Amino acid sequence: MSQKPLHIVILAAGKGSRMRSDTPKVLHCIANTPLLMHVVDSALVLQPEKIHIVVGHGKEQVIDAFKTYPSIELINWVEQTEQLGTGHAVSQALPSISGSANVLMLTADVPLIKARTLRAMVDAMATSPLVLLTAILSDPDGLGRITRDDTNAVTGIVEQKEANANEQAIKEINSGIICADKESLDGWLSKVNNSNAQKEFYLTDVIGLAYADGNPIAALHPTDNAEVMGINSRVQLAEVERLYQRARARALMEQGVTFIDPSRVDIRGDVQIGQDTVIDINVVIQGPTRIGSFVNIAPNCVITASTIEDNANIHPNTVIDSASLGAGVNVGPFARLRPGTVLGDNVRIGNFVETKNAQLDVGAKVNHLSYVGDATVGSNTNVGAGVITCNYDGANKHKTTIGKDVFVGSDCQLVAPVTIADGATIGAGSTITANVGENKLAISRTKQRQIDGWHRPAKNKT
Ligand code: UD1
Ligand code: CA
Question: Which of 57, 129, 158, 426 has the fewest CB atoms within 10 Å, measured from its CB?
């Protein structure tokens, strides 16, 4: 039976009223990625024929969130115009599945589910036409409970609102993730009605029907209960975010990354970090980002879509976005590297320096209070404190080219477009508007004068 084609149905049509939000629940994020996308990512690992996503509430917004999703061709959007329950939602998707198949049903609000667990469920279809994912929780409040007979066989799922006191005491819950044989599922669903507390067609009623027909029902558990944590409210969203972050930090620690406090670091998206890198507190790293080995990242840094090579030192309060940093660089504290920044090995960027679309070659230094934008800076060049590349004339951006071994004195303005050749020296306080030749000294400030017999103005006597 496990050889049958696999189709995955993801339920994502509900409003998520308990979120109290104008945004559809499934687009709320864990680690910057919508809940639904986490589920689709895991589903894809199983290489299904198709992923049928049932959308309804806010469907345009939901579909739009996937417009650049890499495996979009595997997704079939199915509309559920009225949210009449989880069973009704699944019924909307089944006509898109032809022939015999295993149907794995996921809910978009259970985002931490692992592909490995789903794989085990599909494998269990070899011996059972219905496989549930259940968990034993100390606090099962609000969830469907698993009922069993005296041989311990699963007999059904009772929703909390329908459950009597005995059933409410059951700690084994329905994760909402169910795998079923397509043909059997068709039959069971056709018998589900909405005579219950919520006047909804419950998918969970299928289990009782399958039991009544004498089918063996398998119930698997995830290795970690975090996998089946559902999100109905913002409180649960925050709890699941922490579980997710703890798991990511643990995985990185197992690969040799040190976190001074793993509960005070956030990792979002595709992030790789090398061995013996040390990450201090309040650091946010957003993918796609690759950080090498023996890198030190001090407190309060935000690193997005960047690469950082080995032995780099990122000092506190540094913001790095879409930049590429060579080995052994020293950046910050309080530096801001904006998109298009490329630092060669051993470059030094100091406090209150902003760079944008700037390439700095090996060993260049910009140590204090500067703006380097739309510029190239040659190797071993020293840019003094308070130097500004004036790249914008009010209409267009222009480029500043600085050669190698240049010394730019403090408080200079380099008015682009302008080129400063290798070995040149720029006197402090200069405004450079013309190109400077190799090894030349350029200085544009007025000569200092001293005025004798000058008196500082005195306050008028009234
Ligand atoms: C559901 C299960 C419950 C289980 C829990 C696990 C049912 C009846 N109950 O309850 O047994 O313990 O999940 O988290 O299945 N949806 C639709 N269309 C609808 C209704 C819901 O697409 O008409 C989608 C929602 O967007 C959501 C999912 O189905 O992604 C589950 O719906 P939700 O209302 O959250 O169900 P729960 O009350 O959590
Ligand atoms: Ca739910």
Answer: 57
